[in-house]
Amino acid sequence: MIIAIDGPAASGKGTLGKRLSEHFGFAHLDTGLLYRAVARVMLDRDLDLNDRDAAHEVALNLDVTHLDDPRLRGAQMGEAASVISGYQPVRDALLAFQRQFADQPPGAVLDGRDIGTVVCTHADVKLFITAAPEERARRRHLELQKRGEQTEYSTILEDIRRRDERDMNRASAPLKPAADAVTLDTTHLDADAAFQAALDLVKAKTASS
Ligand code: DC
């Protein structure tokens, strides 16, 4: 079984993906980490983020075994990932790994921007998680504070708006709900309520098919 979760930056899709995977005993892949890992190599090697060929080369040779590096979660990496993820050859280079991951028994949960629309178009359940930009910025601000990163709320909100704009308007695999996705707005839900709502949607969907 495959559960595809898409949504904008800081919508809570990663947390939901993790909790759903634990609930069902499935593997979980936060696909944003793949793009962040490409960005990490680019930045570490002082490569220009606008160099599409270099980004493609890095994606083709990406070592996917170190996705737990806490540095990947930082704001700088998210911004850089948003840039290089706009390059179609980079996306193509990361596709096979994601599809292989999705196909493992007994099931997998993948979250990202194009899981329901490109990576796993045949997913059993497709969720599109969204929340107001101000609420997403508030959550991201708290999360970064907990990690000791001092960033202004207004800077984070600006960053989220810029990333939404870039992720939704790019030519390659723009962020949008798949035609058969169910949208869950978590603006007024805390983490537990969002998980319960997502679980109910998954159960309803799998019961009806
Ligand atoms: O979900 P995230 O913030 O970790 O993602 C970082 C960037 O990677 C995001 O701005 C867009 C890109 N991304 C993507 O294009 N496709 C995905 N499936 C996941 C992330």
Please tell me about this protein's structure.
The chain has 209 residues and is an alpha/beta fold. α2 (32-44) crosses α4 (75-84), α3 packs parallel to α5 (88-102) and α7 packs across α8 (153-169). The protein is globular, with a radius of gyration of 16 Å. Strands 2-3-1-4-5 form a five-stranded parallel β-sheet, with helices on both faces. The mean pLDDT is 94. Helices cover 54% and strands 11% of the residues. It has helices at residues 13-24, 32-44, 52-60, 75-84, 88-102, 115-119, 133-146, 153-169, 191-207; strands at 2-6, 27-30, 108-112, 125-130, 182-185. The protein binds 2'-deoxycytidine-5'-monophosphate. 2'-deoxycytidine-5'-monophosphate (DC) binds next to α2, α4 and α8.
Task: Chart the SSEs and their pairings.
Blueprint lengths: L1 E5 L6 H12 L2 E4 L1 H13 L7 H9 L14 H10 L3 H15 L5 E5 L2 H5 L5 E6 L2 H14 L6 H17 L12 E4 L5 H17 L2
The structure holds 2'-deoxycytidine-5'-monophosphate (DC).
The site of 2'-deoxycytidine-5'-monophosphate (DC) has 14 residues, from helix 2, helix 4 and helix 8.
Question: What's this, in brief?
Answer:
The protein has 209 residues and is α/β, with parallel strands linked by helices. The chain has nine helices and five strands.
